[in-house]
Amino acid sequence: MGIFKLKKNKKFDYTPRYYKGEGNPFEVKHKFDEHRKTIDNKGLKTKFVNAIDDYKSPDKSANKRIYIIIAILIFIFLLLIEFDLSIFLPNR
Fold first, then answer.
1. Do residues 19 and 25 lie in contact, with contact meaning Cβ atoms separated by under 8 Å?
2. CA 24 to CA 46: how far, in whole Å?
3. Tens digits of residue pLDDT in 52-80
4. Hey, CA dihedral for 60, 44, 33, 37, is it positive or negative?
5. Distance between terminal CA atoms of the chain?
6. With CB atoms 3.0 to 4.6 Å apart as the test, which of 63, 68, 70, 78 could cross-link to 83 if both were Cys?
7. Spatial contact of 50 and 37, defined as CB atoms under 8 Å apart
8. What confidence score (pLDDT) does residue 71 get?
9. Where along the chain do its domains lie?
10. Nearest-CA neighbor of 38 among 51, 52, 28?
11. How far apart are CA 78 and CA 63, in angstroms?
12. Closest CA to 42 of 32, 31, 50
């Protein structure tokens, strides 16, 4: 009886017409995978340490730019919610 047997998927041997190269043309691979360490990790600590190492940039001006952008966005948010910014100024 066919009740307990699962139907097998059909397999096709398809090769693209204009593909001239090696390897599987259907393999999806990110172009920066060979430069990242966070692809193959075993433990949670290793994943965390590798993610922080990938995030660290040798370009310090990029980090400074990110901090300035974040500060401006927070300031705009505080203005939108009408937060009283006078608490940050000294009393006269």
1. yes
2. 30
3. 877 776 777 777 888 999 999 999 998 88
4. positive
5. 91
6. 78
7. yes
8. 94
9. 33-88
10. 51
11. 23
12. 50
